Amino acid sequence: MRSIIIFASGAGSNAKAIIDHFRHNSLAVVSLIVCNKAGAGVLDIAAKEGISVLHMTRDLMLQTSICETLRSYRPDLLVLAGFLWKLPTHIVDAFDGKIINIHPALLPAYSGKGMYGAAVHAEVVRNREGFSGITIHHVNEHYDEGDIIMQARHKLTSDETPESLAAAIHRLEHFYYPRTIEYLLMQQAL
Ligand code: GRF
Question: What radius of gyration, in Å, describes the C-alpha atoms of the chain?
Fold first, then answer.
């Protein structure tokens, strides 16, 4: 059984989609949720599902011993799903090639500082883009710049609003993130 660690600090709808996907799939299990925000929706999901939570702090993340803590869950993949802190080099190096992130736009467009969540969708609609979408990519020391694994597009409707776009992007994320994780886990040599 493969082990997935999810890093999430928001509502946790992607975490939920991943947990649900692997509930009836013996390939993998979500063994830990790492969260840096008290009161985040993802914490309720973890509690309901009986999944262990690691409450991340800046101090903890900067200690190299955090790598051992994460390793104790024997993760095959570290999955970022709405975790807004940049991972320090010691974590990126310790899990080289095994960390992925999802971005709610078609990278390299709409990336970088401040480009997350509602801000992305507001900007896409303001610029009257024809398409937006999602990008699932490897994480390296430069945020949003790791190798792209897959992208899926959404064609903006003529009356698209930031809210309707956010909902469309979430639908794409919830479909493709769990399936991409499954695909990656199947590719990893045992
Ligand atoms: C997602 O839209 C994802 O693209 C971004 O953070 C958001 C997390 O949403 N990285 P949720 O907490 O999974 O609902």
Answer: 16
